[in-house]
Predict the structure.
Amino acid sequence: MKLIKNILTFGVLIPLLASCTDMFEPALENNRSEDNMYDDPSYAQGVLGYAYSLLPYDTKSVSDVATDDAVTNDRANTYLAMATGSWTSNNDPMSKWQGCRAAIQYINTFLSKVDDIAWAEDEKVHQMYSDRLKGEAYALRALNMYFLMLAHGGWTEDGELLGLPIIKEPEDVNSNYNLPRNTYQECVDWMLEDLNAAIELLPADYADISNAEIPQKYQEIGVTNAGDYNRVNGSHMRGRITARIAEAIRAQITLVAASPAFSDGTTVTWEDAANYAAVVLDRIGGVSGMDEDGYKWFMNTAEIDGLGSGACPPEILWRGDRDNSAEDYALGLNQEKDNFPPSLYGNGRINPTQNLVDAFPMANGYPIDDKDSEYDPNDPYTNRDPRLSEYILYNGATYGTSNTQIITGVYGTNNDALGRQSTSTRTGYYMRKLLRSDCNPNPQYNTTQFHYPVRIRMTEIFLDYAEAANEAWGPTGTGSHGYSAYDVIKAIRSRAGVGVDNGDPYLEACAASKEQMRELIRNERRIELCFENKRFWDMRRWQLDLTETAKGIEIDQVGGTLTYEVIDVERRNYSDYMTYGPIPYAEVLKWSNLQQNAGW
């Protein structure tokens, strides 16, 4: 089989082209044989690099508008269509089928050749290169399978919980493509096998070390010069997958497998998920290592601007490239153009719902519907959880380089007002999270700032641990670790300024009940990870109601007094079977052994 020379071209996805020999053997002048990998290490790394170019993460907020957390004012948005009744097996914006399966094909091709490639003349250096690159490949393969499982794993009409076909070897025109789906458990076992292999092969971090710090396994094969080690695993490699990242992916996989939507079809326990998350957290000292500013990482402008190449601040375990370009495809101003209010030259695309706003507690820690909350529906934004004003622009808030007051009420005099025009808010709110207020989309200026896409936050792993630990050992149980679900949630709320003046009595009450703590953990996860493309997956693995109507707030001014009326904004149209996504319709038509999930 021939490989495409230009590995950055997205037009050819090899796993999907079994019926066309020409796709595997295009004209010679446009390709190189895979045998070139043996003598050209840079070309071989390029094959693995293609898998990096297909990483399945979204670079900005997209799917929350299909949940109870947000709507969009873009009427052509595919997630809006999905949420309002147009989600089908041949119209699936959540699908990961094509990209992830293509990445796995490239990874399998790389793994089939990696041990025979001449990475370096020095055998010891060759071994270190081979170890690291195999470790990356194993971890990337598991990552792509994880996203495939999120999007396409599910129960069939026969009552089986299935994952995807497990494919460990590169496919070519002679391969059997009509494969049945493996069980969900078999897929979990394979992902964990790959990740455990990756963790053994990869460094915890890419860093320049001294001779005394050379890992024991490399000292044993005769590596004595740290320069050789740094050549392979030094700081210049930052940004690629590491053992710590592989450990975090392992924690994510087991959390999903232990969740209500999947637990009946797997042997993964909540204790497993808690222990795997703790491996990641113990590396930073557990709760004591939590970043005090981590909840507003996107606003820590000096930190972002000062990041070295590939470096991550304490809150971020894995990120994409930092960017400050003004191009529409880049992050430097793109999100602000999309989501700033119209008065700040934005299109106001993502509109947080009243449902989400109501999830933020009061600063004293009580939910707003608790009798002790002191919530005033006629003054709804006063004395709230400080994260509310950091994540959401509400009526009367100021924002932007000129501290413009944003009036979303119907009494407003510009297009920031509710429903005023196509780029106005539909809910009475605009998104603030992920954006930098020092950007300026005004065409006169187009002021960009550095942004980076986040792949894994440490806070997510803390929340993974809290959820699993509570289910395994209760709110204050620690298993074999030095911290509990209660400890994690207390630290997360405290750093945001919730319950710090009164000892957080609501949290203390929750500490006596696994059920109450479960609801609190889920709510904290909803708040901390809002607009980060987590909510849709969480709602489905928890088997929550996807059909809750998205609500907004209509604010008017009568005689100088503001009035507040909750309104229905968007009715959601999901069926019960949509807890699990579909296998693409075209694939089921092509392959008789590929069983569809129930309902699709």
